[in-house]
Amino acid sequence: MENYNEIDDILAEEEFVPVVFQKAINGVKIDESTEKGYIEQGSKTELPFWLARELHMRQAASISVPACFNQKTRLEIQADAACVDLRSRCPYFYEFGSKLAPLCDKTIGLLLPYAFRIRYKEILHKAHTIAFAAASKFPTLLTTEETSLYEAAQSSMAAFKKWRAGGPRLQRASILGRKRKPAE
Amino acid sequence: MAGQSDSTMSLFSSEEIEFMAEDEMTEIVPNLRMDSLNFICGDYGPFLPQLAAQVPLWLALALKKRGKCTIRLPQWMSVENLTRVLEAERDSHAFQPLPFHYIEISRLLFDHAREDIPDMYMVRSLVEDIRDVRFHKVETNLEKFTASTVTWKNMSAMEVNVIRAFAGRALQAFYKHDNEQQTPDTDRALDKQPQIPTDRPKRNLKPR
């Protein structure tokens, strides 16, 4: 609850996870097309994480591993973490993963730092060295957390370069440049 | 600037760092006679023609702009010293001791006192080279760091400032991941707390 008001935290919990209901639940529908007004035990659906977590705590549903942490993604991360397009899989990969790990699969907890360590180095080099136009493709692979890192590095580098190139230290007020009209 | 979206990590702009660098003392040789100046930060002068005086850089630059003095190049900015420092920077992993504000001071002097610097182009390219070597070193250091202790000696104000936002965020991320890795069970216990009341009756029911 410490991040209650944080927008990134809220958005991270909006990610959908596949769940399997462990209990029959009356009065709700997961599918508009069904006639039944209840959910059968063992039915599968996708729910936002915040809802799935509450159901999981009450042991009404079990959470299975969502697509962004499936075996295929893991293999890709192990092959070359820096090149995996995590943003299209889940923009809040780390945030979401760390929330999810204790509930469904603890190995996700090991995957996150592993992926981050490798991707961190890539961000470090790309953000500090590559010229802005050339780096246009790389940031599209980054998750939200990584983007904030990347942008922090780029903007402080840009600010430094701007300062070093110099320029007028004192800005002239626009009014000063005008010529005074002769009083009539 | 970079920190604006995140209020917890406030940043200095390069201009602010430059402003702080202007408090460093420099030696000037005035060419006018003037009584001592009394400021909140101290008293400077009296100034006599051809007699060297110690003043803050901002005052030196102000006098210089009015053509009232020449600035003596600081010791560390001599070609011999810079060449030595550059070689040492290239040879070792550690940062060589240089003034905390060396980037800012050198830039200010290049901009405003170029006629007082003998071998201006040489000095300028040496400072640039040193800065590049050191920045590269900063990057390789950043590559290695994790949430453990980080000790880098002799980094300068501008070098720290350029990586401030990035390093802060990166350390936070490392810290977060490392903690999760070590203590997933406590996290889980915390998450489960609200569940305990609903959990208990069920267990009681089972044996019946």
TrEMBL record, chain A:
Principal subcellular localization: nucleus
Residues of the DNA replication complex GINS protein PSF3 N-terminal domain: 6-56
Places the protein is found: Nucleus
Cross-referenced SUPFAM superfamilies: GINS helical bundle-like, PriA/YqbF domain
GO biological process: mitotic DNA replication initiation
Domain GINS subunit: 69-164
One GO cellular component term noted in the UniProt record for this chain: GINS complex
Top-rank taxon, per record: Eukaryota
Keywords noted in UniProt: DNA replication, Nucleus
Family designation: Belongs to the GINS3/PSF3 family.
The protein's name in its UniProt record: GINS subunit domain-containing protein
Native organism: Salix purpurea
UniProtKB/TrEMBL annotation, chain B:
A GO BP annotation: double-strand break repair via break-induced replication
InterPro entries in alphabetical order: GINS_A (IPR021151), GINS_bundle-like_dom_sf (IPR036224), GINS_Psf2 (IPR007257), PSF2_N (IPR056784)
Gene3D superfamilies xref list: 1.20.58.1020, 3.40.5.50
Ranges annotated as biased composition (Basic and acidic residues): 178-191
Subcellular location as annotated: Nucleus
Domain named GINS subunit: residues: 76-168
GO cellular component: GINS complex
Pfam families: PSF2_N, Sld5
Protein name: DNA replication complex GINS protein PSF2
Region listing for Disordered, in residue ranges: 178-208
Domain of life: Eukaryota
The DNA replication complex GINS protein PSF2 N-terminal domain, residue ranges: 14-71
